[in-house]
Write a structure and sequence with these properties.
Four copies of one chain form a homotetramer. Chain A has 368 residues and is of the alpha+beta class. Chain A is built from seven helices and 24 strands. Chain A has one domain: Jelly Rolls, CATH 2.60.120.10. Helix content of chain A is 18%, strand content 32%. In chain A, strands 2-21-18-23-16-15 form a six-stranded antiparallel β-sheet. In chain A, a hairpin with a 2-residue loop joins strand 19 and strand 20. The longest helix of chain A has 16 residues. Chain A is globular, with a radius of gyration of 23 Å. Chain A starts with 14 loop residues before the first helix and ends in a 6-residue tail after the last strand. Chains in contact: A-B, A-D, B-C, C-D. Chains B and C meet through helix 1, strand 1, helix 3, strand 3 and helix 4 of B and helix 1, strand 1, helix 3, strand 3 and helix 4 of C. Strand 3 of chain B pairs antiparallel with strand 1 of chain C.
């Protein structure tokens, strides 16, 4: 891409003109007006210039801090959740992982309960480790276990309870920044106690919807969000293993050599699980790398197991179990596996696809 | 609905006029013209008046005849398949179960091979009993086992082989009549020998696509037909059992009380498995009945297990294992289970939905 | 495409075997069964082998016959319409232009009224000449004038009246054969007298919907059929003239050099005007030809003005004002203009597109 | 709606605990973490609490300031456009009418040229008065005249020229804030001189696409943005007049009594003209009012002619020719006409509809 060379919008002028211009600009300000020509470089750059920065949060730091919060801060009505948000260092102290995405570690101590509420923000949970918490979604208790990916789509009632003696922590992802920025938040409090405290192995939503290609006739019809409440690790793991095995047998299956990838999908549409959030799971064999990429929109990755490195915007970071990193819009990135590396990923791609603003670029841009 | 009272289109006229009219009608015929007013009652009835009739074919008769054909008629290039079509007695000796649907029993003897071909007609197989045949779809061998529902969508290469000492028979369903009637058949011969004679437990298509809600990133995108080559009985059975269990727990899940039903779906769209064919599986608890229904379009049912009766167009028929019956368009029907009754069903509903011609009516129409 | 060489399905066999086979075939017949292997060549040809034939009906013959019917046959309840269908000579005396399409000349004498009714069949009218008839669609009177294309989508009430001293005749197009073949006809009689006998220049539907790109906020939403009741000749003519002018200015606009073409569309979806019928208007400059084509599905063309020839399936026919010809599925055709040639066209392409059975081939297939 | 009563998230605690909590919060900050429980009231309000404020900009002030800018600031490469943005007083000095929408007055003096460029931001122009400027969109010159609504969808090349001795000013609308906030801006400079300086009455895009319901066969297919470059005032005006006339005749047509409204639409989809922006025109008869409404998302209105008042968020403002006002998300508003009142409106509704975040409420909410 040719380098942008924006010339001076306002030519050199004599002193009288300068005074008049100053006066005009003052009047603009008083009249709540701002000229484009002083703003265009910032407002309409030649390619995205995100304020959000690539950043890695270490699980080895996050978990002890969540634990400490567990000791000091009760969970309950008002605060609603003991969730600690990853605040992108480029976003001025806002609790945003990126301009659109919220990522937080949520911590629930032994026998604690997070009360029921609902909101227009779409939410999911990804379980990096542990078990023993049930989330109750519209009255349907859903077990949370290591490797599972769980949904609470917008305006669904939900609360959580830990039924064990052991605390549990997991990753929460939401579209809070997008909803906040666009003034589309509605929120409603539910009962303080959970509507159903039973602890079934499988939720009703799974028993109705989580069969491959098989749908309940009584509940058919397109829905904006997936009705599958929990995508279980056993299925994700098997799908990834199958892809690598098929690749080894000589057939197309993987995203790139040694790089298996699945997308969690809404069975009623075949599209993304939530209208604003895409979720995927990636598996890289040892010594393999992803293709170098840039994408419009941001994504957040969490290491599920294994180790490797991520090069985001030219800066390399080591990746260990539980580490979370963010890739801002149009920042080049690639991931290398040292040992077999499993990563969960979520992004805001459905937003850009829906608005026809999505682009991606694979391979390294030439820089001559 | 008010009874139609069509008056005489042509009033009584004098003899001279009659002669002139006869002459006109003769000229019409010579000029390849036909007046609407003599045809409208047949052409545009007040509600569908199908020539196809409700009919039951007995598995106890079908299977021995297929076996006999196995003894006498080789399978191979030219005839292509040892398939014996159910010919609706109302359709004038055409091999059509209904005006749109083909249903046949296909029989493959020990170590026989049905050669590869492809055609625009969409096809599926439902396996009422047995195992030991693999169908090779686009080079991917797919095991066929009791209770499975398998797809060969239009223009996919496919052939079959029986690798055992035991013959196997199953139900084939296609849209042959529709495609024939609309002159949209394309057909191409493939190799006489199968492209892959291996006999894996799971096909590659299943390993890529048959995970609940999980899709391969490398192969994403909407497809007109489902990429799942085989919907396995274990998943269908479990989904039906889950529905009945959830109903027993007091939550909505079933199509009607004691009547579980699943639809096989295309995971890339959430819609029907084939553009022209809908496929479902129904389970009725003993002593339960379906709701009385009429539907535009026709359907074919096969009893998988159990026994009961079907009342179609006012005529009751006993249902035993393997029996196949057809319900023509807008004919009232209901099904009763004596013992727990499992039924496979396919229909042409997607055609009518796509063309905005679909209607259905549940409950008995009042006849006063 | 490789020529199909289907071998004998049944090998030569000894006499005993022949007897056994005869017995088996008799049993098949008694049991309402038909083997595929004796039918496959007819049922599943390598490419469409339509029974419908290319044929031309001459306006110079049609109009006098319609006039004669006007003298002898009253129009009214029961016969409903004085419509005379074009019966394809290949379709065994059925009133079908093709297996899916009905085309008829309808004739309404001075001050005659065709009573109101509605049906699931989708209908349109194309006005080759004349004026003075209003069709009342759901209570909204729509003027019919030379060059106009008018819609009565399925299940819309409609009747006609001629308010002049002059008879009027026009082309009716419907999906009667498709609806009949698939047993999806519903029909209901309305009042014998028209619900509104006023004769406005523009219908309410046009005043609401026939503004370029502008939709009424009160009536927004996707509809299966176009809400525009009449596509007026002045707009069609201008769009065609504009295309040829833009082509002459050196910009892309036409379907082929000297060949302008517009499609009538549903403004609420951008797609076809009716779920089962596509309608277009084509203009060929003198001495220009269409590209040679084959298409799955059938189409019917009517010459609006000018003269030329149509080569359909290798047979050339002269085209004069009002002549109507049919192109069966997959039959090669091209049209040549001697003088500037305007043609109206309708087809069943939306059916095949919806069912993913559509194909087309442009240019002449090599035959070596 | 029940008033939200969020209780204290953190209960009163002893001093030691306070110190520990302070330490924890400090560590959070150092680790780029922010707890939800201190932020939730701001982040996830019970209903939208926009920072953007209702505001009116007076045309009587805007136009002279634009003229003054015309005297002092040249237009050309770098600044690109002499556009002055309406800066919502609640949005901290950013040039945003709302969190998603940009609205500006653009001014082009006699014989001035604004150079060609393209960007991913979607843009339109609404012409409140004047004529004599042509905008060249992808090489196609489009006349700009009073009452017209013109599109330059994302990534379309465009530049402007004034070919007269008279300056011209108009309203520009874009999705700049949304694109900026989500880091999805791409921008490319084109030639400094316009690619086509001709001044045709109608653009090629109009000649191809702006015929009611008629589409060019050569260019068919769904597009994310409308291919109609200009929606002309004569069509808009006629559609509005038609609605009011049909209402007077006793048939449904208007948005509310005495309130006609049209939406500009994409003829290839029937949906909004741009993926991110909805545009409508409203006409209120004298002494009529709109229904009281709240909508998720923001809108900007400009008075085209007539006078009246707008009550937005409980504050009444007089409306005169050219006045522009913004309605932030979920703020109650209604408009009253004193004299017949014509208003142009644009909003970000397609964004919220695509993301399933849209809601609206008509009528006054009870406040007991």
């Amino acid at each position: 891409m040719r380098k942008k060379e924006r010339k001076e919008p306002v030519p050199a002028a004599d002193a009288e003109r300068d005074d008049e211009l100053d006066a005009l600009y003052r009047t603009f300000t008083e009249t709540n007006l701002i000229p484009l020509w002083t703003q265009i470089d910032d407002l309409m750059p030649e390619q995205p210039t995100p304020r959000a920065r690539p950043h890695v949060w270490r699980w080895s730091e996050l978990y002890p801090l969540a634990q400490r919060a567990g000791d000091l801060v009760p969970v309950g009505r008002g605060g609603e959740r003991r969730a600690i948000a990853l605040a992108n260092p480029g976003l001025g102290g806002r609790p945003y992982a990126s301009p659109t995405l919220w990522a937080a570690i949520q911590y629930l101590g032994p026998h604690e309960v997070a009360p029921e509420h609902r909101h227009t923000q779409n939410a999911f949970r990804f379980i990096i480790e542990g078990e023993g918490v049930w989330t109750v979604v519209n009255g349907d208790p859903v077990a949370m276990r290591r490797g599972d990916f769980l949904l609470t789509p917008g305006w669904n009632w939900h609360g959580h309870q830990n039924v064990t003696e052991t605390p549990m922590a997991w990753l929460d992802g939401l579209d809070i920044p997008l909803v906040h920025q666009t003034d589309s938040s509605f929120f409603e409090f539910g009962p303080a106690a959970l509507t159903d405290t039973s602890t079934p192995e499988r939720s009703r939503a799974e028993r109705l919807w989580a069969h491959p290609g098989v749908q309940p006739v009584a509940l058919l019809g397109e829905r904006p969000s997936s009705p599958i409440s929990a995508y279980r690790w056993e299925h994700t793991d098997r799908a990834l293993a199958d892809q690598l095995a098929i690749e080894a047998e000589g057939h197309p299956a993987t995203a790139a050599p040694g790089h298996a990838a699945v997308r969690f999908s809404n069975p009623t549409t075949g599209r993304d699980v939530l209208p604003t959030i895409r979720a995927e799971f990636h598996r890289l064999r040892a010594r393999k790398s992803t293709v170098v990429r840039r994408e419009v929109g941001s994504s957040v990755w969490q290491v599920f197991s294994g180790r490797g490195t991520a090069v985001v915007g030219g800066i390399e970071n080591r990746l260990e179990h539980g580490d979370i990193f963010v890739v801002p819009s149009w920042v080049e990135y690639e991931i290398h596996a040292e040992a077999d590396l499993d990563l969960f990923r979520f992004s805001d791609a459905p937003v850009f696809e829906a608005l026809h603003l999505y682009r991606e670029l694979t391979g390294r841009e030439s820089t001559e």
